[in-house]
Write a structure and sequence with these properties.
Protein name: Aquaporin SIP2-1
Structural class: mainly alpha
Helix content: over 70%
Distance between the termini: 30 Å
Strand content: under 5%
Keywords: Membrane, Transmembrane, Transmembrane helix
Number of strands: 0
Radius of gyration: 16 Å
Number of helices: 4
Order of helices and strands: HHHH
Length: 106
């Protein structure tokens, strides 16, 4: 396995872990630290605004890691349009790495 493939697996693993916990941290920040209630309109608006900013942050991380992904569906399309080895690497290594870490936080 080449260095770039190992780098992608490590990036996928780290970003998947971060993605799972980012929503939890956003909720903790809005509800616990800022003190908004679970059904407070201002708290919900703030929570969703931070979630949108979070999506842009993860889009930036994809660029920084040169292809790391946090969602298995986004890399599946690239695997299907690529060659057989890329498809087997994605289905056999990248997606299982993301699903295993994603399943921990659920």
């Amino acid at each position: 396995m080449g260095v770039s493939r190992r780098r992608l697996l490590v990036s996928d693993f780290i970003m998947s872990f971060m993605w799972v916990w980012s929503n939890v941290l956003i909720k903790m920040f809005v509800h616990t630290i800022l003190g908004y209630g679970a059904h407070d309109l201002k708290g919900e608006i703030l929570k969703h605004a931070i979630s949108v900013i979070n999506m842009f942050f993860f889009a930036l991380l994809v660029k920084v890691t040169k292809g790391g992904a946090y969602n298995p569906l986004t890399i599946l399309s690239g695997a299907i349009s690529g060659d057989l080895t890329n498809f087997l690497f994605t289905v056999g290594a990248r997606i299982p790495a993301q699903i295993n870490i994603g399943g921990v936080g659920v």
